[in-house]
Amino acid sequence: MAIHKIKIFTGRGSEYLATKIAASFGTTLGQSEVLRFSDGEFQPCYNESIRGCTVFIIQSTFPPSDNLMELLMMIDAARRASAHQVVAVVPYFGWARQDRKDRPRVPIGAKLVANMLMAAGVDRVMTMDLHADQIQGFFDVPVDALYASGIFVPYIKSLNIEDLSIAAPDMGGAKRANTYSKLLGTPIIISHKERAKANVVGKMTAIGDVEGRNVLIVDDMIDTAGTICMAADMLMARGAKSVRAAITHPVLSGPAYERINDSALEEVIVTDTIPLNPDKDLHKFTVLSVADLFADVIERVHNYKEISSIFSK
């Protein structure tokens, strides 16, 4: 089977991560630029030939929406430049919380984004810790949905934490918490929350033994940090010895940084799918890179190797 030449490019939003992925893969990023017009319109451009190449475009779609639009335009440009195959590497898949109609007269944003990526001409999508696994079914192309547990679990084991329990911040995270519980051989705690409105939690309780435990809360993303900080404070009030969190995507909007620093959280472990704000106080944060994992999957996909062993982590 013929192996086409590979080239890795990045959108502006994920250049910090794409550089590490390319280095781990053993290459450098392809040359591209974005021309910007005075009204804010922009035009991505490849500054080298990609004809007949397998092109990997790395771009997380965190706010602003320009990041998504830039990814779509880069895919379109690659198709029009006669790339053999175009793979979108989207470490953080934005709009993933909108995976269904949870109330009348609202869009299904995740499906719309999937439609746009396919309309742009993507042949394959790589991402990590989707908010809802069924989003893979929104695509009519292969989706490689990786799991951050392959990165988090070795680090957590290295801490040698005694009396460790895994906690889900809400009922929706029970499946993820159960996975970590099995991998680490620990008990599980489920937090139950009642939302007053979007991004605002009304009250919270815990199901499971908390007294005397060192608790690790696991989740796919942290946005305003209201839920996780309330959970940490509640767990400490219930007798936990310490509370940490392992969160894949650090969205961290609004007062999130301040809430975390003022909370009972001892450590917040995140990945670099989204960059942290360097102007904030980051003393509680530990960042683990996803670069090696994505580079490994890119190499396997490019060379038609199996990747199921990575999914099982």
TrEMBL record:
It catalyses: D-ribose 5-phosphate + ATP = 5-phospho-alpha-D-ribose 1-diphosphate + AMP + H(+). Its EC number is 2.7.6.1. Gene3D superfamilies: 3.40.50.2020. GO terms for molecular function: ATP binding; kinase activity; magnesium ion binding; ribose phosphate diphosphokinase activity. Residues 6-121 form the Ribose-phosphate pyrophosphokinase N-terminal domain. Its cofactor is Mg(2+). Keywords: ATP-binding, Kinase, Magnesium, Metal-binding, Nucleotide biosynthesis, Nucleotide-binding, Transferase. One of its GO terms (biological process) is 5-phosphoribose 1-diphosphate biosynthetic process. It is an enzyme of class 2 (transferase). Pfam families: Pribosyl_synth, Pribosyltran_N. Pathway: Metabolic intermediate biosynthesis; 5-phospho-alpha-D-ribose 1-diphosphate biosynthesis; 5-phospho-alpha-D-ribose 1-diphosphate from D-ribose 5-phosphate (route I): step 1/1. One of its GO terms (cellular component) is ribose phosphate diphosphokinase complex. InterPro entries: PRib_PP_synth_CS, Pribosyltran_N, PRTase-like, PRTase_dom, Rib-P_diPkinase. Involved in the biosynthesis of the central metabolite phospho-alpha-D-ribosyl-1-pyrophosphate (PRPP) via the transfer of pyrophosphoryl group from ATP to 1-hydroxyl of ribose-5-phosphate (Rib-5-P). PANTHER family: RIBOSE-PHOSPHATE DIPHOSPHOKINASE FAMILY MEMBER, RIBOSE-PHOSPHATE PYROPHOSPHOKINASE 1, CHLOROPLASTIC. Belongs to the ribose-phosphate pyrophosphokinase family. Class I subfamily. This is Ribose-phosphate pyrophosphokinase.
